[in-house]
């Protein structure tokens, strides 16, 4: 299984970025897909998840209203649209796959992707 994340970069506060994660080696539509992030010196934390059909999403309180998770099952891809970015959103963002539909804990994850760096300057 491979989860390949892309789309990170450097952006000013208030700006936007869109992350993508292309999945292979798994039955994409059978998994809840989403994102964690890890800032320097901090634990990895849940950001967002979107269920199999894309009809239900879950968000961390810190990103609710600013971030939108979505998926395209035909392309085996999950997205994270990040708007109104803040310096505290700076982190490495990790794509994840799970059988569990909820606001994930670390233990819920079946597969991890490599991270993509997001840096928000003030």
Order of helices and strands: EEEEEEEEEE
Mean pLDDT: 96
Principal-axis shape: globular
User: What is the tally of helical segments?
Assistant: 0
Distance between the termini: 37 Å
Helix content bin: under 10%
Largest sheet: 6 strands, mixed
What is the structural class?
mainly beta
Going across the biggest sheet, name each strand in turn. 2-10-9-4-5-6
Which residue ranges are poorly predicted, with pLDDT under 50 across at least 5 consecutive positions?
none
Beta strands, count: 10
Strand content: over 45%
Write structural notes for this entry.
The protein has 122 residues and is mainly β. Helices cover 0% and strands 54% of the residues. The protein contains no helices and ten strands. Strands 2-10-9-4-5-6 form a six-stranded mixed β-sheet, with no helix packed on it.
């Amino acid at each position: 299984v491979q989860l390949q994340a892309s789309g990170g970069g450097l952006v000013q506060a208030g700006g936007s970025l869109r992350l993508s994660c292309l999945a292979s080696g798994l039955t994409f539509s059978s998994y809840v897909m989403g994102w964690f992030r890890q800032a320097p010196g901090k634990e990895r934390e849940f950001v967002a998840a979107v269920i199999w059909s894309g009809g239900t999403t879950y968000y961390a309180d810190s990103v609710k209203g600013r971030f939108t998770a979505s998926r395209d099952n035909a392309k085996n891809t999950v997205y994270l649209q990040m708007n109104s970015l803040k310096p505290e959103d700076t982190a490495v963002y990790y794509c994840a796959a799970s059988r569990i539909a909820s606001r994930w804990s670390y233990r819920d994850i079946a597969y991890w992707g490599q991270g993509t760096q997001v840096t928000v300057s003030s």
